[in-house]
Design goal:
By secondary structure, this protein is of the alpha+beta class. It has helices at residues 17-21, 61-83; strands at 27-32, 37-43, 52-59. It has a domain at 23-83. The protein contains 2 helices and 3 strands.
Length: 92
């Protein structure tokens, strides 16, 4: 978030214990309308024919664009750090 004088404002982030545990997702279904993107997150377990969706993100197109840019930048940093090293591989 930026203030009017273009200095970045520092935000404090609080996370509860249950949320901090996190969830593993390996399947994403993205839909959109004129006003929002919906990202369903789930787990595709080998041997099962159903995917259990356990989280849904709903974001505006502007926030989706920001999320996409942050993901691309993080992936670039990941590749720079791990992909070109003998012990590192991009994990699917």
């Amino acid at each position: 978030m930026k203030t009017t004088d273009n200095k970045q404002m520092k935000l404090s982030v609080d996370i509860d214990e249950e949320t901090a545990k996190g969830n593993y997702y390996n399947m994403f279904i993205i839909n959109f309308s004129e006003n929002e993107f919906t990202i369903d997150c789930g787990f595709n377990s080998p041997g099962f024919k159903k995917i259990k969706i356990s989280n849904r993100l709903i974001v505006s197109p502007g926030q989706m664009e920001k999320l996409s840019a942050v993901i691309q930048e993080s992936l670039r940093k990941y590749k720079d750090k791990y992909e070109n090293k003998p012990e590192g591989k991009l994990i699917n």
